[in-house]
Design goal:
The complex is a heterodimer of chains A (265) and B (534). With 265 residues, chain A is an all-alpha fold. Chain A has ten helices and no strands. In chain B, a hairpin with a 2-residue loop joins strand 14 and strand 15. The chains are: A mainly alpha (265), B alpha+beta (534). Chains A and B meet through helix 4 of A and helix 7, helix 10, strand 16, helix 12 and strand 17 of B.
């Protein structure tokens, strides 16, 4: 399953990157005499209400979300790892300080912070810059949950027998960190990364639903999901549901990348 | 046994009043007719208050109400009203000329947005009883369009112990639960009768549920839990038209418009070269002439709007300058004009004489699908002449902060809600020293000759009694705005409403209130339907 999930994600990314060369229309091209067209020869998934090719927009949206959500996850993970590891490692007042900061970050409504940050940013930025800023903010603000998990895992590892044995044999602290501790924390870090990617895709989707995500005309999976509200009245259910289906597949694929739970086969 | 059946039938009838239901989108802030300032309170006032003169919502012209006739004296400063005889307030108190005099006395005593609109400076109008059923009202100065102001003046009783709660309109406030609903009951002393001589109103109650959520309102309408929606957006209208085609009503072009404007405020933090573009008539006109308005109306507004012309929409049949038409779509002409003004088109876009790439951002409020579509289409249209546009959606408080306090924006796309038919209602937009002169507010003195001319014309029309002369002056204002394009009018929206098929005799009007302007004549069909709609 894991291989299938990786293959699926790579295929989606590849389609997103290559889609602009394969499809006849650009994602921002408006065919104003073919608005809300049904799926057909020229437009595989039909067109949206401005006459833009849904297939081209879906692939462009997938490209944006699948490239930038992992990037934001890496950023969040680096911050979480540095703060969580250092808190677990040093303990004492630093641990208390970092734990307080984590609690603070978790208790602050991230959406309000994002909306405020969006409001004070410069207006005259290109859609690409805008989407990068959005994911950068998600990365900068979304590390706290992972940091708490990493800190806890670090504390557990430091109290384990093999670390005590290593300390008893006179192992240096850098060696303890890089040779013993980090390799044992690697599954936790990897899991946190995999969990964060779909979470950031969904966060961006929520921001887009509020109209505060990726700027026009660039699509993202989130901004495309907004059109689901037309589903009951539109005959083009496939074109409207396609972003949701793709998002569900993406999130499921990331779920399959997670290590199996203990006790499960 | 017969007595029992009779009692049972009476109970059934009593338990089944005809209740007209619709939603208020906000909490009414007051039920006092002179303190009204918000839409919800205005709705209650409209349905409950009696006025001397009423603007006919269909013809948009004044007609007699509590006053049977009137005469304008002193060159427009004084009006003598002859009052209708034998009327009573909702609590049975007789209506007399003293009540009108008392109401004007209260106008002088109470400060509110509404009473201020009747004042000139600090001077309020006064009313004197000059005969049996005759009142003479003296305004503080010449007041053209006084009928429109009087249309909102609910007459209060001088003698009723219920004070402002005693009303002369078709309904009276019966029950109010904050945050939940307002129930209006029938005024037993309402004086108007239908063509067959039967008393009005025809429904027993009006129940107005307070809900800001438009989706919920629409859902309840579809379920038959509310009978009317006063304002439906194009997307919802289109959906409803497919599901309940008999329920949607399009009353034609409204007074509202969607418009784009550039920030011309001298103290804004914009770079000087951008301010220079935005202050250039050639630039603004070129932008305007590069926008396909017909497409905006057809696609972004789902065909439920007409291309924007100017500050007065064609829906305002009294004041619209019929000589004007929407700016033509002529991108090549626009580009030629820009090139003549020093701009140059290169392969990657348009540049000004100083070598700056012509690009700007359009801010609009997040979550408004129509405006997001309009902005995306303008972005594509202007891209064709090499102008790069960024569309930024902001939450409304952030947007207001930028356009009214920080002035840190380049262009803004918003709608103008204009419920006032008369140009005096737009004074706060067109006078250059006002805060609502959005493109360049609070000017100490007009910064351009055309703004100076608009100031002069607007003040002149406000002092002129002759309707024809006022129209001439305001036509010139419209022509200047059309020529200078400080606001680039994109579309004029249609009045889109929904009325449940069980509602009969309802009249949909361009003027507010769109669906219940004749609420007293409305009838609900079938008692069973009322039950399901409750």
């Amino acid at each position: 399953m894991k291989r299938l999930a990786i293959a699926l994600l790579l295929a989606l990314l590849l389609a997103g990157v290559a889609g602009q060369f394969l499809l006849p229309a650009r994602y921002d091209q408006q065919f104003r005499d073919q608005t809300d067209a049904l799926p057909g020869g020229q437009h595989l998934l039909g067109t949206d209400e401005l006459g833009r090719d849904r297939a081209a927009r879906l692939l462009a949206g997938a490209r944006v979300s699948l490239l930038l959500a992992p990037a934001a996850s890496v950023l969040a993970l680096v911050l979480a790892a540095v703060l969580g590891l250092s808190a677990g490692w040093f303990g004492g007042w630093w641990d208390r300080g970092v734990s307080t900061l984590i609690d603070l970050m978790i208790s602050v409504p991230i959406f309000l912070v994002l909306i405020t940050a969006r409001a004070v940013l410069p207006l005259n930025v290109s859609p690409v810059t805008s989407v990068m800023i959005t994911f950068l903010l998600l990365g900068l603000l979304g590390w706290a949950g992972s940091a708490r998990v990493i800190r806890g895992a670090c504390r557990t590892q430091l109290n384990s027998d093999y670390i005590l044995r290593a300390l008893a044999t006179g192992c240096s602290r850098p060696r303890l960190l890089f040779v013993h501790l980090l390799p044992n924390l690697w599954p936790v870090l990897r899991t946190q990364f995999i969990v964060a990617v779909p979470a950031f895709i969904l966060d961006e989707a929520n921001l887009s639903l509020l109209g505060l995500g990726v700027a026009e005309p660039l699509p993202s999976l989130g901004s495309l999901l907004k059109e689901l509200t037309h589903l009951p009245s539109s005959p083009n259910w496939l074109g409207l549901a396609a972003p949701a289906i793709l998002l569900a597949i993406t999130v499921c694929a990331f779920e399959f990348l997670l290590p199996p739970k203990e006790g499960s086969s | 046994m017969r007595l029992f059946v009779l009692l049972w039938a009476t109970c059934l009838l009593a338990a089944d009043p005809a209740v007209l239901k619709f939603c208020l989108r906000s909490e009414p802030k007051t039920f006092h007719p002179l303190k009204v300032g918000d839409d919800a309170s205005e709705t209650v006032r409209y349905l409950t208050a009696g006025t001397l003169v009423k603007i006919n919502r269909r013809t948009q012209l004044p007609e007699a109400s509590l006053a049977t006739k009137w005469k304008t004296l002193d060159g427009g400063q004084t009006v003598r009203f002859q009052l209708r005889e034998g009327l009573r307030f909702s609590d049975g108190t007789p209506f007399t000329a003293e009540d009108v005099a008392y109401t004007f006395q209260q106008v002088g005593a109470i400060r509110s947005g509404f009473t201020d609109s009747l004042r000139q400076g600090d001077n309020a109008p006064t009313a004197t009883v000059t005969g049996k059923n005759e009142v003479t009202v003296r305004f503080a100065g010449v007041t053209p369009g006084w009928e429109r102001l009087i249309d909102g003046l609910g007459i209060m009783s001088a003698k009723s112990p219920l004070q402002e709660k005693a009303v002369l309109g078709a309904f009276m406030v019966a029950e109010y639960k904050a945050g939940q609903y307002v129930v209006l009951g029938r005024n037993p002393h309402y004086w108007v009768r239908d063509a067959q001589g039967k008393p009005l109103p025809r429904v027993d109650q009006i129940r107005m549920d307070i809900t800001a959520n438009r989706d919920l309102e629409l859902m309840r309408f579809k379920r038959g839990e509310v009978h009317m929606i006063n304002k439906v957006d194009p997307d919802a209208y289109q959906t409803l038209a497919t599901q309940m085609p008999e329920a949607v009503r399009n009353a034609g072009v409204s007074f509202e418009s969607e418009q784009l404007w550039f920030n011309q405020y001298a103290k804004s933090p914009l770079p000087a070269y951008k301010l220079e573009w935005f202050r250039s008539t050639v630039f603004r006109r070129a932008v305007s002439e590069s926008i396909r308005r017909a497409d905006l109306a057809k696609i972004a507004m789902k065909g439920l709007a007409v291309p924007g012309v100017g500050p007065v929409s064609p829906g305002n049949t009294v004041w619209f300058n019929t000589k004007l038409a929407a700016h033509p779509y002529a991108p090549s002409v626009a580009l030629a004009k820009l090139q003549k003004a020093g701009f140059r088109k290169q392969a990657d876009g348009l540049y000004d004489a100083g070598g700056h790439r012509v690009e700007f951002s359009i801010v609009t409020n997040a979550g408004n699908k129509t405006r997001e579509r309009l902005a995306a289409m303008i972005q594509a249209d202007l891209g064709e002449i090499g102008i790069r546009v960024s569309v930024v959606t902001l939450d409304f408080p952030s947007l207001l902060e930028r356009i009214t306090r920080g002035f840190n924006y380049e262009a803004c796309l918003l709608g103008l809600t204009n419920v006032d038919q008369d140009p005096n209602g737009q004074m706060n937009v067109w006078l250059s020293n006002t805060a609502n002169h959005q493109w360049n507010p609070n000017q100490a003195a007009p910064e351009t000759p055309w703004e100076a001319e608009i100031d002069k014309l607007m003040r002149a029309q406000a002092r002129t009694v002759s309707q024809a002369k006022r129209k001439e002056l305001f036509d010139r204002v419209q022509a200047i705005v059309h020529e200078q394009a400080p606001f680039i009018y994109l579309v004029h929206k249609n009045v889109l409403t929904a009325i449940h098929p069980t509602v009969r005799h309802s009249l949909v009007t361009v003027l507010f209130p769109h669906v219940f302007s004749n609420a007293e004549e409305v009838e609900l069909q079938g008692a069973g339907v009322y039950r399901s709609a409750r």
